[in-house]
Specification:
- With 462 residues, the chain is of the alpha/beta class.
- Helices cover 57% and strands 6% of the residues.
- It has 19 helices and 8 strands.
- The strands form 3 sheets. The protein has a 4-stranded mixed beta sheet, with no helix packed on it.
- Helix 6 (168-196) runs antiparallel to helix 7.
Length: 462
């Protein structure tokens, strides 16, 4: 960045002096824009360059911890010169002359609506809310479906002890599908959170890279997720194909018993608030899952060999299984809300998260709801608008909602996700722990780099 900036932003006089030195490596330059507390919002940089008329020069000052120049990398240890982005101050401030995720998004600030006002918390931006809040809703949804599976396990073991294995196939499909869904979504969510935290999200101190590396094997062990989804999809298709001769669908597949209803009754949403009805959102998920399963079942019947059909349509089987499993998770979230929740304020927040979970999936997979003919484009747009309203409603209690998980700082292992919000102080301390920062300059600088620079400077003067 040092040489390109000289070529594109320096004056002719500056280029004449500095470009030969830079290109010949007579000086080693770095680019110092990003600060520990400021990234994309260069107008919010805290480092100042105050003009001193007595010397016809500038006094550079990084007055706070958050103004520390943060990303020069190894060049910060060997560079002899730097292009420093700073706020130009003459008789007054003229701004820049050259110009573990919810908690951090509340700490991190970028840009301001009015010049001079404090920057806006990143969490207040709708784009950030759209990234993070559906993941927060999913965390609650997965916790509730996990609690349900614990009770299901006890019930199933009781049945097995009494030689009742009638629900074995359905239970296998249910548990396999939930495992595949939750681990896939969680792995993707960690990466989304890492990106949502900006550059600091990629630091080891954020805890997110280590968390991702530790969690990602869950998508493979105990059964590869794609294979598990295909198994669930086959189970659903076979259930539909054998429905006339087999037992009535039960448990998590009970909605398939009303196949005619779900494949003929279309979405009844006429106003965006209709999407807040548990019956409507649940009916939408049932109709989508049923229609996708029925569609692929009809395609499978056209193949002379069923196994060949399953192989050819394996991608569609994954979609069918995912829709089925998302229906299970949503239904258990709704069941939780219908249970005993004594605190009405808590129930209100959980209802908000449930609606957010459901509508975020409708918007994410809107093509499946449209292609099956269940809903219209207008109804899909109403869902998008209602989701935006829900995300805004989640914002005031977002921190409290993650605090309720009661994860200690030690457990999180993340500087960005600290409970006290004192991110930058501890981020700086973590950087100081790196052996690379034990000295002011890198090892070997005095012995190898400095002599070369001095020789080239001497040669250039000659």
């Amino acid at each position: 960045m040092f040489v390109p900036v000289l070529r594109t932003q320096a004056t002719a006089e500056q280029q004449k002096k500095w470009l030969p030195l830079a290109t010949s490596m007579s000086v080693i330059g770095c680019y110092a824009q990003t600060e520990i507390g400021h990234g994309s919002n260069v107008q919010g940089l805290e480092t100042t360059a105050t003009f001193d008329p007595s010397t016809d020069g500038f006094i550079l000052n990084s007055p706070t911890l958050t103004s520390t120049k943060w990303w020069p990398g190894g060049l910060g240890k060997v560079a002899t010169h730097a292009i420093v982005h700073a706020r130009l101050i003459l008789d007054k401030d003229y701004g820049v002359h050259v110009t573990i995720a919810v908690r951090y998004s509340a700490v991190r600030r970028q840009f301001s609506l009015d010049n001079g006002n404090r920057e806006i918390q990143v969490l207040d931006y709708p784009t950030q809310q759209q990234k993070i809040f559906p993941l927060l809703a999913s965390a609650y949804a997965f916790r509730f479906v996990g609690q349900w599976m614990e009770s299901l396990y006890s019930e199933v073991m009781y049945q097995f002890e009494n030689d009742n294995f009638s629900a074995l196939a359905e239970i296998h499909a249910c548990t396999s599908g939930i495992k595949a869904l939750t681990t896939s979504v969680t792995a993707d969510a960690i990466e989304k959170c890492r990106k949502a935290c900006g550059g600091h999200g990629y630091l080891c101190a954020s805890g997110l890279p280590e968390l991702f590396a530790a969690y990602i094997p869950a998508c493979t062990y105990e059964g590869d997720n794609t294979i598990l989804f295909i198994q669930v999809g086959k189970f659903l298709v076979k259930m539909i194909l054998n429905m006339k001769t087999s037992l009535r669908p039960q448990g998590t597949t009970q909605y398939l018993a009303d196949l005619d209803l779900h494949t003929t009754k279309d979405c009844e949403v006429s106003d965006e608030d209709d999407w807040l009805s548990s019956n409507i959102i649940l009916g939408a998920f049932e109709a989508r899952a049923a229609r996708l399963a029925l569609s692929i079942s009809r395609h499978i019947q056209k193949f002379p060999d069923q196994d060949a059909g399953f192989e050819e349509l394996s991608v569609d089987l994954v979609s069918v299984a995912r829709a089925h499993c998302q229906l299970i998770v949503l239904s258990k979230f709704i069941d939780k809300l219908h249970g005993a929740i004594p605190d009405l304020n808590v129930k209100k927040q959980l209802q908000l998260l449930c609606n957010t979970y459901g509508l975020s999936l409708v918007c994410e997979h809107v093509e499946e709801f449209l292609v099956t003919g269940y809903m219209t484009k207008r109804q899909a747009n109403l869902a998008r608008h209602q989701l935006r309203c829900l995300l805004s409603d989640v914002r005031p209690n977002a921190i409290a909602l993650v605090d309720s998980f009661d994860h200690t700082d030690h457990y999180l292992g993340s500087v960005l996700g600290r409970y006290d919000g004192d991110v930058y102080t501890h981020l700086y301390r973590e950087a100081l722990k790196d052996p690379f920062n034990n000295s002011a300059v890198t090892e070997g600088y005095k012995e190898y780099i400095e002599p070369i620079i001095k020789h080239r400077l001497h040669s250039s003067k000659l």
